[in-house]
C-alpha cells in the first residue's frame, strides 16, 4: 500500500529531487553542502526501504515499480544538475554519460524481460557500483566549496568525487555487459521457444 513505510521512504526519495535541484541551482557553498546532505539522506532511504520491506513483509507491486524509478530519477537528476552547473570537473561529464546510458539500457532490458516473465537479478558487483556511484555524486554535489566551508580547504572534494565517478563508470560498463549477456541469452531462448511453438 502507498502508506506502508517502505513506500513512503521511496516516495520521499522522489520528493527530494526538486529540493535537491533547487539547492544546486543556488550555487553557494552552503547550498551545495545542503544538497550533499539531502542526497545522502535520500541514498540512505534507498537502503532502508528494501530492508524494511523484507523485515516487515511489506512487499507490494507499487514498491517494486517505484523503487528503481526513484533511484534512476535521483541519480539522473543529480548528474544532469552537476553537468549543467559545471560541477563535473576532471572530465566527469564522460562517466556521467556512461552511467546514464547504462541505466536507460538496463531499464529497457528489464522491461522487456518482465514481459517474458524473466527477472534480471542485481549482482553483488552492481551493488558495489551503486555504492561507489552514490558516494561519488555526494562528493560532487558538495564540491570544493564545502571543504572551505568546513575549514578543510586542503581536501580535494571535487577530485575525489570525479575519481569515484570514473571508478563507478568502469563498474557500470562491466556490470552492464554482464546484464546484457544474460538478457540476450534469455531473449535467444524466448525466440527459440517461439519458433518451436509456431
From TrEMBL:
Location in the cell: Membrane
Q: What is the gene name?
A: pgsA
Q: Which GO terms describe its molecular function?
A: CDP-diacylglycerol-glycerol-3-phosphate 3-phosphatidyltransferase activity
The keyword Cell membrane appears for this protein? no
Membership in a protein family:
Belongs to the CDP-alcohol phosphatidyltransferase class-I family.
The name on file for this protein is: CDP-diacylglycerol--glycerol-3-phosphate 3-phosphatidyltransferase
Q: A GO BP term, please?
A: glycerophospholipid biosynthetic process
The catalysed reaction is: a CDP-1,2-diacyl-sn-glycerol + sn-glycerol 3-phosphate = a 1,2-diacyl-sn-glycero-3-phospho-(1'-sn-glycero-3'-phosphate) + CMP + H(+)
Q: Name one GO cellular component term.
A: membrane
Q: Which organism is it from?
A: Gluconacetobacter asukensis
Superkingdom of the organism of origin: Bacteria
Q: How does it sit in the membrane?
A: Multi-pass membrane protein
